[in-house]
Amino acid sequence: MNSREDFQRASFTEKCDWVSVSSNFIMARSLGNAKIYLYHSVDFFIEVYYAPTYKKILTISTFSSITGLTPYLDQILLTDLGF
User: Fold this and answer.
1) Is 53 exposed, middle or buried (0-12, 13-18, 19+ CB in 10 A)?
2) What is the structure's pLDDT at 73?
3) Tens digits of residue pLDDT in 46-74
4) Where does residue 53 fall: left (phi above 0), alpha (psi -120 to 50 degrees), or beta otherwise?
5) End-to-end CA distance of the chain
6) For the whole model, what pTM was predicted?
7) Fewer beta carbons within 10 angstroms: which end of the chain, N or C?
C-alpha cells in the first residue's frame, strides 16, 4: 500500500498488518471506555479504536488533514518540546 486510498480499500486484516509493520506510533488518547492509538504512515494518519474491556479493535480510520490532530493537542506539553 502506497497511499491512503490503498489503505482504505484494504481488508481489516491487511490494515492491521500495515499498522503493525509500516507505520509509526505517535500517541494514544482515551475516549470514554475506548483507547485511540494514533499512527503515521506515508502521507496520512491512522487511528485505531480499541476497546480494552472486550480486547477488540472497534474500527480503523484515516485522515490526512492536520486538523484531525486537534483531539491530541491537549496531551502535548510544550516543556517536552523544550519550551
Assistant:
1) exposed
2) 87
3) 999 999 999 999 999 999 998 999 999 88
4) alpha
5) 37
6) 0.87
7) C
